[in-house]
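> Could you send the Dehydrogenase prediction when you get a chance?

Sure thing. Input:
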Amino acid sequence: MTKWGVVATGKIADIVTSDMALVPDAEVVAVSSRSTPKAEEFARKHGIPRFYGDYHDMLADPDVEVVYVATPHSSHYIVARNALLAGKAVLCEKPITVTLKDAERLVELARKQKVFLMEAMWTRFNPLVKRVRELVAEGAVGSIRSVHADFGGPSAHDPAHWLWDPAAGGGSLLDLGVYPVSFTHMLLGAPESIAAHGTLIDGVDAEAALLLRYQNGSFAQLSSSLVGYYSKAATVVGTAGRIEIPPLFYRPTEFTVVRPDRPDEKHSLEIQGHGYHYQIAEVVKRVQAGQTESPDMPLDETLAVMRTLDEALDQLGVSYR
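Output:
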């Protein structure tokens, strides 16, 4: 049994903790929040035996083996760093940090400490996404020429909300755009060049459009938005066909392989819970095996994605430094 501690009690922590119950070898034994009453309420809801009003106290709990970091973006680095220094394995919500420099520091520390670290890019562990990756590698739709993906939806403008606050790591790219960027990296690798266009509100990117270009001439058109009503779909276009992933591409329950002169090939999946349990099971598997990284979301890949996001944000004029 792998014993977990959860840092933060917001919406994503609530959902992911619920899905942890679907993994037989995962047990949440502690939760922390800046508010002790909130921690207590969260613990009661999820049947967690211990709660703390300071995450440092939770890191001192000898029963906690793995820490799930679900704090706002801007505090991912410091919380994950302290957990690694305490010798705890870490699953950190995406984006792993708000800058490439901080991500590099975190990865360097994890490797130095020889402690497991993984970015919580849950999409990578969805069985259908894994199947898409396999089909592309097998050449099922030929050589990939382009990837198209978007993730966006209108969010009420509120300068007090972290999404619109640069100090909290707000903006569309880090919260939503990381999904299409990571999806593209999974299939095509790091781009040769990046061109970004967007709109800033209150110092964060309210919307962003990225064109990633590759040495062989292939490209990706990706977008994220806090103001536009996007489809949240993805298409992978090859020389011999295409793969269509309907909404929600980052949590797919189906996709279709479309090729000329052949019947469409449909794939489907029934997901238990919200779909986060696949990544929880991955962490449990790797930690129990004494491994420090996941081959499906390796740390070098996390850094490559952060490098793309960092460059795009720099072009847009967004700074979290």
